Amino acid sequence: MAVLVVGSIALDSVKTPFGEVKEVLGGSATFASYAASFFCLPHLVGVVGNDFPKEYINLLKEKPIDIKGLEIIAGETFRWKGYYDFDLNTANTVKTELNVFENFRPRIPEEYRKIKYVFLGNIDPELQLEVLKQVDKPELVIGDTMNFWITNKRKALGKLLKKLNVLVINDAEARQLSEEPNLIKAGKKLLSSGPGYIIIKKGEHGALLFSETSFFSLPAYPLECLYDPTGAGDSFAGGFLGYLAGVKKIGRNQFRKALVFGSVMASFSVEDFSLNRLKRLRQEEITQRYNEFVAISHFENFKL
Ligand code: AMP
């Protein structure tokens, strides 16, 4: 099953209490498509500069990820520099260099336009809206954003929310976007802004799923070795959408399972810098961790 993934492809420089990396492969579309590729065939749309290392292109191609929609243009690749303190839930941005993204207009290749499952990774919401103009009645559109765009492009973000089926957002961003400190109220408020489902990711505290008719809360996997949270949100989205793209009929249970698969992929992604852990990941490890998730959060028979 095919999914369309649009977002940033980046060279990240990241410092955490456990190490530091410079100009390594990152970006919302990169993490999301790599994680999704364990479940389906992602079709990537994005832009990089002509300084983008060839080995990174090969890494994506080999997975396999269809990169026909990846534009390579003269100029420098998008760069993000950030750090995390011991509270690994908060990314501190030092520098965002949009570079080739500054004048980028996503062009969805003709053969991608009928893809039914779309992930709009964290990029300028105006570009996310442009993508939606080019696709032909997708069944499920999932969107992500971050504080940078909530601060700078709130109006465009408002328009985008009306067109999303699912918004995936972290706790701090949910509070900022909804202007509501209580996360439950924030989730409900965001539901009324458009999307049928809201997922609030709480890092090491798990994730919440809101819809008009149901609420679901999943704990985080009890990880002891967490090196770099960068890309957790996008790996989550990739696993979530990748799983849903493969099911026959999407209902409440499938959404909940997708939340588990998303959390599984995020938990692997943070075990090393960049895509290093996902590069070593084997399919059977995904199944095993999924089952561990079920075991740690299952208390059906406890009902009084
Ligand atoms: P997350 O999954 O939320 O940790 O996202 C991590 C990725 O977001 C990093 O690999 C960055 O390259 C990318 N990123 C950071 N800032 C931006 C931005 N303003 N627009 C798009 N992508 C960004």
Beta fraction of the residues? Answer: 25-35%
Mean pLDDT: 96
The SSE string, one letter per element, is EEEHEHEEEEHEHHEHHEEEHHHH
Number of helices: 11
- Globally, the shape reads globular
**Sheet with the most strands, sense and barrel status:** 9 strands, mixed
Distinct ligands, ions and cofactors found in the model:
adenosine monophosphate
Low-confidence stretches: none
Residue share in helix:
25-40%
Q: Over the alpha carbons, how many angstroms does the gyration radius reach?
A: 18 Å
The secondary-structure class comes to alpha/beta
Beginning-to-end CA distance, first to last residue: 42 Å
The largest beta-sheet arranges its strands as 5-4-1-8-9-10-11-12-13
Count of extended strands: 13
Write a structural description.
This protein is α/β, with parallel strands linked by helices and 304 residues long. Helices cover 37% and strands 25% of the residues. The strands form 2 sheets. A 9-stranded mixed β-sheet has the order 5-4-1-8-9-10-11-12-13, with helices on both faces. The longest helix has 18 residues, at 252-269. The chain binds adenosine monophosphate.
What is the fold's blueprint, element by element?
Blueprint: E1 2-6, E2 10-16, E3 19-26, H1 28-36, E4 41-49, H2 54-62, E5 66-73, E6 78-83, E7 92-97, E8 117-120, H3 125-134, E9 140-144, H4 147-152, H5 154-161, E10 166-170, H6 171-178, H7 183-191, E11 197-201, E12 207-211, E13 215-218, H8 232-245, H9 252-269, H10 276-280, H11 283-297
Helix pairs in contact: 1-8, 3-5, 6-7, 8-9, 9-11
The protein binds adenosine monophosphate.
